[in-house]
Fold this sequence. Notes:
Structural class: mainly beta
Order of helices and strands: EEEEEEEEEEE
Largest sheet: 7 strands, mixed
Radius of gyration: 13 Å
Shape: globular
Distance between the termini: 40 Å
Strand content: over 45%
Amino acid sequence: xxxxxxxxxxxxxxxxxxxxxxxxxxxxxxxxxxxxxxxxxxxxxxxxxxxxxxxxxxxxxxxxxxxxxxxxxxxxxxxxxxxxxxxxxxxxxxxxxxxxxxxxxxxxxxxxxxx
Length: 115
């Protein structure tokens, strides 16, 4: 079975940067579509960014130009580079992996953007 473990969250000032990582357990990691979601207090979980096995990416309008999703299949890891962070980016961030009818979620990592 697939296990996903996020890391890299924390407290950062507005305008700062963070790099989130999500490490997977399966050798067939390269076949999965990967995504980052976030959930802020009182709001529904939303898609932030996604990347296919072929490297195609998709971003929420709110993060375009600031966030970059990437994957390293050799390390079985997906990353989210977050630049120019804003207070409204504060949320718990979750990584997600999908293949066929299978879907897996990480435990989440807290990102707080505040002075």
